[in-house]
Amino acid sequence: MDKDDLGRLLAYTEWANHRVIRATATLALDDWKRDLKGSHGGVRGTLVHILSAETTWRKRSSLSCSAWVRSATRCSSSS
Hints:
Helix content is about 65%, strand content about 0%. It contains four helices and no strands. The longest helix is centred in the N-terminal third of the chain and has 22 residues, at about 5-25.
């Protein structure tokens, strides 16, 4: 992955996040809170998961591999 690939990935992530936020902004409160019995509960839980995962990856991207290991996060250069 080079700098241009990363730029496209980040642009896509921003586009997708805005699209999801616009779609969920129209939900009634009951629909927002409803437990859909999915892996993250419902819409709210799924959005919390997306935000948390993105925040984690943004933090990790600023760390070296050795910092990942020190923070007990697995870091491997193998596939």
